């Protein structure tokens, strides 16, 4: 897939630097808190890195911002059509995510993802801000939240506090699902209103 100026890599580069500056964190401190190497963070901020699900969710957790504040899924109005094949894939150890849309309604923000859990694989998360909702479309999905495990089939739903440690696993064939991340509007960093990067950036 071709990488445009609106690619995940480019959007993360700009928003990560702004979010870090807004939080007053140096690269060294962000590295310490997120367990992501300084060199990797520098590459991400320069647009040269290769972000993974683990990286983006770890940054979301440490910076306490929704995923969309890092990936900049701008809201749209009117008819919105998003073609799955045109969206970049954000991959992790066991999951491939395609970001489809951000929906804002009153004090609530939803991020909508097409989520595929690869067969025989598991994706773990230490937790991040928001509430997580998953609806299985095809396959059998094992979900574990802070030690409690459930298995879901097509049409089944699970929701939980995303701050809790959790994991998804597809013990057999690949699983197709819809992932919705829900936030309160006051949990957002509102990067559009932030001071431009570099104006008062915390130094390494």
UniProtKB/TrEMBL annotation:
SMART domains cross-referenced by the UniProt entry: HTH_XRE (SM00530)
Family annotation (PROSITE patterns): HTH_CROC1
Keywords: DNA-binding
CDD domains (UniProt xref): cupin_XRE_C (cd02209), HTH_XRE (cd00093)
A Pfam family recorded for this sequence: HTH_3
Domain of life: Bacteria
Residue ranges of every copy of the HTH cro/C1-type domain listed in the record: 16-70
InterPro entries: Cro/C1-type_HTH (IPR001387), Cupin_2 (IPR013096), Lambda_DNA-bd_dom_sf (IPR010982), RmlC-like_jellyroll (IPR014710), RmlC_Cupin_sf (IPR011051), TransReg_Diox_bact_type (IPR050807)
Keyword Methyltransferase among record annotations: no
Record has DNA-binding as a keyword: yes
The name this protein goes by in its record: XRE family transcriptional regulator
